[in-house]
Structures are given as C-alpha cells and as structure tokens.
Specification:
Aspartate Aminotransferase, domain 1; Aspartate Aminotransferase, domain 2; 2 domains; 7-stranded mixed sheet; two-stranded parallel ribbon
C-alpha cells in the first residue's frame, strides 16, 4: 500500500519577502560588474570604500586581550552599562540621582525590542506606538510584532522636515501612546527638527502625557559631537523632567556592527522606580536572549572608560562625520556641474549617514539595471558609501536616471 500524504502543519504559512535593505546587499554582492556601487546598507566605509576599524577600537582590543568566554550577567557588562549611561546622561539630575535603569541589548534593534517588552511588562497602559513616515524600516515590524498598534505620522515633504504635519499627526496621541523619536540623523531622511521645533515637540509630548522613546543610533556619528547629538533627549529628561526610554547603539559610532552592542535605558521619576524598571528589563532580557554578548561590550567599555582611548574615539567620530559631510557636498557639486534637472540642495542640508534623494522608484530601478548602483527603493542612499572613486560615476548615473526616466 502506498503511503498517505499528510497535510503539513505549515500549510497555511505564507512566504514573507526578504528584508528590502538586506536584499539590496545580496544583489550587490552577486553583481560582478567592476563599476558597481553599494549605497544601500548603512555601514561606514573609508575613502577607498573599505570597512574601517576605528583606531580607538584597535586600542581597546589591545587592552581587552584574552578576556575569556564566560557568560555576562543578564543585564550585561556593568562597566559598559555605566559608561553608556554616563555618555548619554552625564550632568543631568536623573544621572546624579541614580534614576536611570539600564540593560545591555543587541544593538539598536534589541534596545527597542526590550523597551517595548518592558513597557508592556510594567503595565504602563501604553497600547499605541507612533512612528514617523518615513522611518527606519524595522520600527513598524518591531512594535507591531509585540502587539502595539503602530500609527504613522507624516514627517517629510519637499526635501525637508514637515514640522506642521508632524505636530498635527501627534496631537491625537495621549497617555496610552508612545512616540519613537530619532535623537539625531533621522533615518532615512537625514532631516532633524531645529532646537526650537524640538522644544515644541517636547511641549506637546508633556501636555498629552505621551511617552517618548528615543532611537539614538547615531550619537556622535552625526555631528562629530556626542554632546551636540544628545541635545534633544537631554532637553526632554533634564529641562522638562520627563520620563523616557533612550535606546543606544554603538554599531555606527564605534563601527561594532557585527558585535551587536547597544543599551536600553529608562529615565524614571525616582530611584525606586528605576530599581523596578531594572528588574523588569532583566526579566524581559531573560525571556528573549537570556544574556548579551561579551566581547564587543568589553571593547565599548574600554573606549568609554579609558581617557586616552575616549579621546581617540572623539577624533574618530570627527573623521567619520567629516568625510560624510564632504561627500554630501561633493555629490551636490557634481550634480550642479552636470546641471541635473531638479533641486538638490536638500542633500547638503540633511545630516547623518543617509541622504534622501527624492527620486522615483522607477529611477531607482533604472540605476540598478543600467548603472549597477544599488540603493533602497525609497530613494535613500548611504552617503558613507560614496568616495572619490565613485562619486563622479554615481552623479553621472543619477543625472542619466533623472533625464531618462
């Protein structure tokens, strides 16, 4: 007798398309054309287009040496956590009063995940998370997967931050809502609020009782100064005395992409509440990854905690942010020289790793098919992927795409 084929338990499963950004990288790797350009994934590259290990990180690696491979505590490496909290909050009352709960996390993604899980575990009553439109592609997936209702607020219009639409979109949020704010270097647009706009946003957050979550993936990497890039989050927690979650990543700022080193923190109203939130963070960490990776945390701790290495890191931040700024200007100048149709000044007004070109999806596809240029279909490009060897080629390709499609 022939065997009977049983129905699969996965019969109703639906194929999920690959992540758009990582799929851009896959297509780039498979392309053998010598002129190909990767402007998709957000990783810093040096002037020759190669990965760059920061001199400060090399100094830290030498100090870490043979550190063994034992487990870290659930909350992570204490010296790293202390250094990261000090970096973000030093000089604030919350820091001085020990009102900051923290937990090492798997870079920015893990930080945001633990923030959401902790808000649920703490019985905050928060059911809705507001995110910008556009935003980093993982925000909606992260919070939606946790059961939050995700609502999008218009953020970008005609090459700039659409402040009026953003404020109108946020005014309906209340104490059952959280809002994800980009501390600096808004991903993907590169358009940040001015300090006066930040103050108005903070005032609305305070008035409506909205809980702020700062996605702080680029502190120091954006302007070259951590102090400058942390201004908004410190205004919220110090000047307005608001509770908040601040999610840090050291992937970009220290080039520790594969080490997955991040920190989730909660600024609370009292030392006792901070202790409670620390216990909740440990609980949700235990329920997900149990405890975080050690080696990258030891490197980051040495960078943050060793004066001469911290000084070198400050120089490294200026090196990276400075090269990105120069590539913005160079691309703009090339487009002006080519008399490329359209307005391109937004490229030099934007900040951070990414540039939002504003071209159409058909033009993005044309760039890949005809010129082997790979980028997100949203028109976002990684400015860090440009260098003296490819910026002229890309400018000419972009010019052709705009004129042809």
């Amino acid at each position: 007798m022939g065997s009977v084929t049983q129905a699969s338990v996965f019969e109703k499963a639906e194929l999920i398309p690959p992540d758009a950004i990582f799929d851009v990288g896959r297509r780039y790797v498979e392309n053998t054309n010598p002129n190909k350009v990767n402007l998709g994934q957000g990783t810093y590259r040096d002037e020759n287009g190669n990965p760059w290990v920061l001199p400060s990180v090399r100094m830290a690696e030498a100090k870490v040496g043979d550190c063994g491979h034992e487990y870290l505590p659930i909350a992570g490496l204490k010296s790293f956590r202390d250094g990261a909290v000090r970096l973000a909050f030093h000089g604030t009352e919350a820091f001085n009063d020990n009102r900051v709960a923290s937990c090492q996390a798997l870079s920015g993604t893990g930080s945001l995940l633990l923030a959401g899980l902790a808000l649920k575990k703490a019985n905050t009553g928060i059911t809705t998370v507001y995110i910008t439109e556009p935003t980093w592609s993982n925000h909606a997936l992260l919070f939606g997967s946790q059961g939050f209702e995700v609502k999008k607020i218009p953020y970008y219009k005609k090459g700039a931050f659409d402040f009026e639409s953003f404020m109108n979109g946020l005014k309906d949020a209340n104490s059952s809502s959280a809002v994800v704010l980009h501390a600096c270097a808004h991903n993907p647009t590169g358009c940040d609020p001015t300090r006066e706009q930040w103050k108005e946003i903070a005032s609305l957050v305070q008035k409506n009782g909205i809980f702020p979550i700062f996605d702080s993936a680029y502190l120091g990497f954006n302007s070259g100064s951590v102090e400058e890039d942390a201004w908004a989050l410190r205004y919220f927690v110090e000047d307005l005395k608001l509770e908040a979650s601040v999610c840090l990543s050291f992937a970009k700022s220290m080039g520790l992409y594969g080490e997955r080193i991040g920190l989730v923190s909660f600024v609370t109203s009292s030392k006792e509440t901070a202790r409670t939130m620390s216990s909740i963070l440990e609980n949700v960490q235990r329920a997900t990854i149990s405890n975080p990776p050690a080696y990258g945390a030891r490197i980051a701790a040495k960078v943050l905690g060793t004066p001469e290495i911290a000084e070198q890191w400050s120089k490294d931040l200026i090196t990276m942010s400075g090269r990105i700024k120069s590539m913005r200007q160079r691309l703009y100048d090339e487009l002006i020289n080519l008399q490329t149709p359209g307005e391109w000044s937004h490229l030099v007004k934007q900040t951070g790793m990414f540039g939002y070109t504003g071209i159409s999806s058909s033009q993005v596809a044309y760039l890949e098919e005809e010129h082997h240029v790979y980028m997100a279909d949203t028109s976002r490009i990684s400015i860090a992927g440009l260098n003296e060897g490819n910026v002229v080629y890309f400018a000419k390709a972009l010019d052709d795409a705009v004129r042809t499609k």
